[in-house]
Amino acid sequence: MHFHTFTLSHFHTFTLSHFHISTLSLMNLSLSSTSSALQKRGYETLVCASGAEAAEAVAREMADARIVGFGGSMTISSLGLQERAKALGKEVLIHGDPSLSPERKMEVMRGELTCDLFLLSANAMTADGVNVNIDGNGNRDAASIFGPKRVVYVVGRNKIVDGGIEDAIARVKREASPPNCRRLNRRTPCAATGECADCSSPDRICHVTAIFDRCPRRTSTLVILVDEDLGY
Ligand code: SF4
């Protein structure tokens, strides 16, 4: 097992020759295992002990980017990364900005497809590194597959499921889509009841399911796993 992706500052007793298991939580061991699985699937990875530490890592990623696109992630918003990008003088593309006209929103979504750095989270990820994202327009999935020069995910430990792809999809329909429908004022069964009814509502947000078997070949992608619950 490899532990080289741990942030050492949080594990003061860590040495290669004297590894003190008591300093690591079981969850961190699990994140390390998922990190290794992701690396085998072609991703760069980083394991962070907290959201704040992940935010610093993303800020470092912003250094070389002129245009930063945001995939509509509550995780990314909660870490203050939109404000961080603006403070760094980046051109930010946020299609979820409620002040945008419908025409401008379409322009922003298209711009996100070719930005320098695209930030998002996963709706769910299997412990062995398969990422699942369910999208309404497909713009977030599209930008995470091909187009941006660099894609960075921030994934809280709550997004990782023990089972396979079906469990990951079930997590999205149980934990992510209902609160997203409520947040976006969508009139769907899950917004009302909290449970997916595989609806045919015009407001349905589950139109495109992207399953990432491997890191997309031509998209440089970093997955930051965080030992903290983030987003939903
Ligand atoms: S299919 Fe419909 S009811 Fe089910 S999670 Fe998606 S929007 Fe909600």
Characterization of this structure:
This protein has helices at residues 26-40, 51-62, 74-78, 81-87, 102-112, 139-145, 165-183, 189-193, and strands at 44-48, 67-70, 91-94, 117-120, 124-126, 131-135, 150-156, 160-161, 208-212, 220-226. The chain has a 6-stranded parallel β-sheet, sandwiched between helices. Strands 8-5-6-9 form a 4-stranded mixed β-sheet, sandwiched between helices. It has one domain (28-170, 206-226): NagB/RpiA/CoA transferase-like (Rossmann fold, 3-Layer(aba) Sandwich). Residues 1-23 have low confidence and may be disordered. The chain contains 8 helices and 10 strands. Bound molecules: iron/sulfur cluster (SF4).
Question: What is the class in the CATH system?
Answer: Alpha Beta
**Cofactors, ions, other ligands:** iron/sulfur cluster
What is the second-level CATH architecture?
A: 3-Layer(aba) Sandwich
Which word captures the global form? Answer: globular
Structural class: alpha/beta
Secondary-structure element pattern, one letter each: HEHEHHEHEEEHEEHHEE
CATH topology: Rossmann fold
Strands side by side in the biggest sheet: 1-10-7-4-2-3
* SS elements, strand count: 10
Low-confidence stretches: 1-23
Please, how many helices? Answer: 8
By CATH, the superfamily comes out as: NagB/RpiA/CoA transferase-like
Q: Using only CA atoms, what is the Rg?
A: 18 Å
Number of domains: 1
Q: Strand-residue fraction? A: 15-25%
Distance N to C terminus: 29 Å
Specify the helix fraction band: 25-40%
Sheet bearing the most strands, described? 6 strands, parallel
pLDDT average, as an integer? 91
